[in-house]
Amino acid sequence: MAVSAFDSRIFRNLFGTQEIRDVFTDEAYVRSLIEVEAALARAEAAAGVIPAEAGKAITDTFASLEIDYERLARDTDIVGYPVLPLVLQLVEGTPEETAKYIHWGATTQDIQDDASMLQIKRGVALVRRELETLKGVLKGLAVTHRDTPMAGRTHLQHALPNTFGYKCAVYLSSVIRHLERIGEIEQRCLLVQFGGAAGTIASLGEDDTGLRVRENLAAELGLKNPDITWHVARDNIAEILNFLALVGGTLGKIALDVMIMSSN
């Protein structure tokens, strides 16, 4: 049963593509959770927190582990979030000598935030690709129609003439700024999360071990290493959403202009 246009088989492609939907399925989220748990084991092995061989063994085991999604759903109904039920399945499917190192020193929000960051990172990459394509199209139109005259409009009424190339160049300027914003988002907002239960990484001791693990984890996941944990600071998420709203506004403006310019 469709509850919105986004999961309607009839209307969903008006609001997205299968490629972007695949990034945010339940299965993709669970795979991202597992990817984070494996990366954490490798990061801790590299920092000497767990045995060196444990990181590889956990990664190899997770690569072929089958998740019982029906059980995961049932257990999540009880717990309220999927990480603990998932970790239980991961532990059960891993040899005992290495299973004890799964989720070492982490808290639920660490794993959930990192999994979400991986999904957002992949989604942002798709947006970047589409904007790069649009940039090329608009640049070509701006050059081709540099001298193609058309009616300018003021309050929807015909005004002084301009050129179609000029309008495309204005659209292009917005797209270029959006691509610049993506670069800033990738540096400022796509952050790794690893702080433990209270955000202080106290579970890994009083020295810099926790910081080294977080740095290793960031490298493993291709995320940025923040100056401090961001468990309760969500402005990076808000910035990404605001960026998407800006992109949507630009695309809507182009569509509205085409509709108006096509009218009698």
TrEMBL record:
Give start and end of each Fumarate lyase N-terminal domain. Answer: 19-263
Q: What highest taxon heads this organism's lineage?
A: Eukaryota
Give one GO term, molecular function aspect.
catalytic activity
Q: Which family does it belong to?
A: Belongs to the class-II fumarase/aspartase family.
PANTHER family noted in UniProt = ADENYLOSUCCINATE LYASE, ADENYLOSUCCINATE LYASE C-TERMINAL DOMAIN-CONTAINING PROTEIN
Name this protein carries in UniProt: Fumarate lyase N-terminal domain-containing protein
